[in-house]
Specification:
By secondary structure, the protein is of the alpha/beta class. It is built from 6 helices and 7 strands; from the N terminus they run H-H-E-H-E-E-H-E-H-E-H-E-E.
Protein backbone atom coordinates (compact mmCIF):
# COMPACT_ATOMS: atom_id res chain seq x y z
CA UNK A 1 0.00 0.00 0.00
CA UNK A 2 0.95 3.64 -0.10
CA UNK A 3 0.76 6.19 2.67
CA UNK A 4 -1.70 8.36 0.72
CA UNK A 5 -3.95 5.31 0.23
CA UNK A 6 -3.69 4.39 3.92
CA UNK A 7 -4.69 7.94 4.92
CA UNK A 8 -7.70 7.82 2.60
CA UNK A 9 -8.72 4.53 4.20
CA UNK A 10 -8.18 5.94 7.72
CA UNK A 11 -10.34 9.01 6.97
CA UNK A 12 -13.18 7.03 5.39
CA UNK A 13 -12.63 8.37 1.89
CA UNK A 14 -14.76 6.65 -0.72
CA UNK A 15 -11.61 6.56 -2.87
CA UNK A 16 -10.23 3.75 -0.69
CA UNK A 17 -13.38 1.60 -0.66
CA UNK A 18 -12.55 -1.94 -1.75
CA UNK A 19 -15.76 -2.31 -3.77
CA UNK A 20 -14.36 0.13 -6.34
CA UNK A 21 -11.72 -2.25 -7.67
CA UNK A 22 -10.60 -0.21 -10.70
CA UNK A 23 -11.26 3.10 -9.13
CA UNK A 24 -8.67 5.07 -7.37
CA UNK A 25 -5.85 2.57 -7.99
CA UNK A 26 -3.96 5.79 -8.59
CA UNK A 27 -3.86 6.38 -4.83
CA UNK A 28 -1.40 3.49 -4.73
CA UNK A 29 0.57 4.09 -7.90
CA UNK A 30 0.13 7.39 -9.73
CA UNK A 31 -0.41 9.91 -6.94
CA UNK A 32 2.66 8.90 -4.89
CA UNK A 33 4.80 9.48 -7.99
CA UNK A 34 3.53 13.07 -8.30
CA UNK A 35 2.89 13.88 -4.62
CA UNK A 36 5.95 12.58 -2.78
CA UNK A 37 8.56 14.92 -4.38
CA UNK A 38 6.34 17.93 -3.52
CA UNK A 39 5.09 16.82 -0.16
CA UNK A 40 6.84 19.47 1.95
CA UNK A 41 6.49 22.32 -0.55
CA UNK A 42 2.84 21.97 -1.58
CA UNK A 43 0.97 25.05 -0.38
CA UNK A 44 -2.54 24.78 -1.83
CA UNK A 45 -4.77 22.00 -3.14
CA UNK A 46 -8.25 22.18 -4.64
CA UNK A 47 -10.58 19.20 -4.75
CA UNK A 48 -13.84 19.32 -6.70
CA UNK A 49 -16.36 16.82 -5.37
CA UNK A 50 -15.58 16.18 -1.70
CA UNK A 51 -18.55 14.18 -0.32
CA UNK A 52 -17.90 13.88 3.45
CA UNK A 53 -14.36 15.25 3.18
CA UNK A 54 -12.38 12.03 3.72
CA UNK A 55 -10.06 12.75 0.83
CA UNK A 56 -9.51 16.35 1.96
CA UNK A 57 -8.59 15.20 5.46
CA UNK A 58 -6.27 12.51 4.06
CA UNK A 59 -4.45 15.04 1.87
CA UNK A 60 -4.28 17.52 4.74
CA UNK A 61 -2.51 14.88 6.83
CA UNK A 62 -0.24 13.88 3.93
CA UNK A 63 0.82 17.43 2.94
CA UNK A 64 1.96 19.06 6.20
CA UNK A 65 2.04 22.65 4.88
CA UNK A 66 -0.91 22.66 2.49
CA UNK A 67 -4.16 24.53 2.74
CA UNK A 68 -7.03 22.71 1.07
CA UNK A 69 -10.10 24.01 -0.69
CA UNK A 70 -13.04 21.71 -1.34
CA UNK A 71 -16.01 22.29 -3.63
CA UNK A 72 -19.27 20.37 -3.65
CA UNK A 73 -22.91 21.07 -4.40
CA UNK A 74 -23.87 20.08 -0.83
CA UNK A 75 -22.03 20.36 2.45
CA UNK A 76 -21.72 16.93 4.08
CA UNK A 77 -18.26 17.46 5.56
CA UNK A 78 -17.46 15.62 8.78
CA UNK A 79 -14.58 15.52 11.24
CA UNK A 80 -11.62 17.81 11.82
CA UNK A 81 -11.54 20.44 9.09
CA UNK A 82 -8.41 22.34 10.13
CA UNK A 83 -6.61 23.85 7.10
CA UNK A 84 -9.68 23.04 4.96
CA UNK A 85 -11.96 25.63 3.36
CA UNK A 86 -15.29 24.47 1.92
CA UNK A 87 -17.00 26.38 -0.89
CA UNK A 88 -20.52 25.27 -1.84
CA UNK A 89 -21.48 25.42 -5.50
CA UNK A 90 -21.78 23.54 -8.75
CA UNK A 91 -18.88 22.66 -10.98
CA UNK A 92 -21.03 23.33 -14.05
CA UNK A 93 -21.40 27.00 -13.08
CA UNK A 94 -18.69 28.89 -14.98
CA UNK A 95 -19.10 32.06 -12.90
CA UNK A 96 -18.83 30.14 -9.63
CA UNK A 97 -15.81 28.09 -10.74
CA UNK A 98 -14.03 31.19 -12.06
CA UNK A 99 -14.65 33.01 -8.77
CA UNK A 100 -13.19 30.08 -6.79
CA UNK A 101 -10.13 30.06 -9.06
CA UNK A 102 -9.64 33.81 -8.65
CA UNK A 103 -10.31 33.91 -4.91
CA UNK A 104 -8.47 30.77 -3.77
CA UNK A 105 -5.84 30.03 -6.46
CA UNK A 106 -3.24 29.47 -7.60
CA UNK A 107 -3.04 25.78 -6.75
CA UNK A 108 -0.23 23.22 -6.65
CA UNK A 109 -2.70 20.39 -7.28
CA UNK A 110 -6.28 20.32 -8.48
CA UNK A 111 -8.25 17.09 -8.23
CA UNK A 112 -11.50 16.95 -10.15
CA UNK A 113 -13.67 14.18 -8.71
CA UNK A 114 -17.06 15.82 -9.08
CA UNK A 115 -20.08 14.73 -11.09
CA UNK A 116 -18.07 12.67 -13.61
CA UNK A 117 -20.21 14.14 -16.38
CA UNK A 118 -18.20 15.12 -19.44
CA UNK A 119 -19.69 18.63 -19.77
CA UNK A 120 -19.02 19.36 -16.08
CA UNK A 121 -15.46 18.07 -16.38
CA UNK A 122 -14.91 20.27 -19.41
CA UNK A 123 -16.22 23.41 -17.66
CA UNK A 124 -14.14 22.69 -14.57
CA UNK A 125 -11.01 22.06 -16.63
CA UNK A 126 -11.46 25.25 -18.64
CA UNK A 127 -12.00 27.33 -15.50
CA UNK A 128 -9.29 25.75 -13.36
CA UNK A 129 -6.31 25.15 -15.68
CA UNK A 130 -5.37 28.84 -15.52
CA UNK A 131 -5.45 28.56 -11.70
CA UNK A 132 -2.54 26.10 -11.63
CA UNK A 133 0.86 27.28 -10.48
CA UNK A 134 3.75 26.64 -12.85
CA UNK A 135 4.64 23.00 -12.20
CA UNK A 136 1.15 22.38 -10.80
CA UNK A 137 -0.87 19.34 -11.81
CA UNK A 138 -4.58 19.09 -12.58
CA UNK A 139 -6.04 15.58 -12.24
CA UNK A 140 -9.39 14.50 -13.69
CA UNK A 141 -10.42 11.34 -11.86
CA UNK A 142 -12.72 8.59 -13.02
CA UNK A 143 -12.43 9.44 -16.71
CA UNK A 144 -14.07 6.68 -18.70
CA UNK A 145 -11.29 4.94 -20.62
CA UNK A 146 -13.55 4.50 -23.66
CA UNK A 147 -12.09 7.57 -25.39
CA UNK A 148 -13.61 10.02 -22.89
CA UNK A 149 -10.15 11.06 -21.70
CA UNK A 150 -9.03 11.73 -25.25
CA UNK A 151 -12.29 13.56 -25.94
CA UNK A 152 -11.74 15.79 -22.91
CA UNK A 153 -8.13 16.43 -23.92
CA UNK A 154 -9.16 17.35 -27.49
CA UNK A 155 -11.83 19.77 -26.24
CA UNK A 156 -9.43 21.39 -23.80
CA UNK A 157 -6.74 21.58 -26.48
CA UNK A 158 -9.18 23.30 -28.85
CA UNK A 159 -10.22 25.72 -26.11
CA UNK A 160 -6.62 26.50 -25.18
CA UNK A 161 -5.18 27.13 -28.65
CA UNK A 162 -5.04 30.81 -27.73
CA UNK A 163 -3.43 29.87 -24.37
CA UNK A 164 -0.57 27.96 -26.01
CA UNK A 165 -1.48 24.38 -25.13
CA UNK A 166 2.22 23.53 -25.18
CA UNK A 167 2.32 25.15 -21.74
CA UNK A 168 0.91 21.86 -20.44
CA UNK A 169 2.15 18.28 -20.45
CA UNK A 170 -0.65 15.72 -20.58
CA UNK A 171 -0.57 12.29 -18.96
CA UNK A 172 -3.11 9.55 -19.69
CA UNK A 173 -3.61 6.77 -17.15
CA UNK A 174 -6.51 4.33 -16.99
CA UNK A 175 -9.42 6.26 -15.45
CA UNK A 176 -7.20 9.33 -14.86
CA UNK A 177 -6.13 12.31 -16.96
CA UNK A 178 -3.48 14.77 -15.75
CA UNK A 179 -2.34 18.17 -17.03
CA UNK A 180 0.91 19.60 -15.72
CA UNK A 181 1.55 23.30 -16.23
CA UNK A 182 5.04 23.86 -17.64
CA UNK A 183 5.16 27.65 -18.05
Amino acid sequence: MSEIFDLHLQHGSIKAYPKYKHAHYYLRSVYPMFFEPRRATTAKILEVGVAKGGSLRAMRDYFPNAKLVGIDIENHLEGDLSRITFVQGSQNDVEFMTSVANEHGPFDFIIEDGSHLFDDQLITTQCMLPALKVGGIYFVEDVNPNNEGEKLFEHVKEYYVRWKMNQYSVFFFPWLLAFQRNT
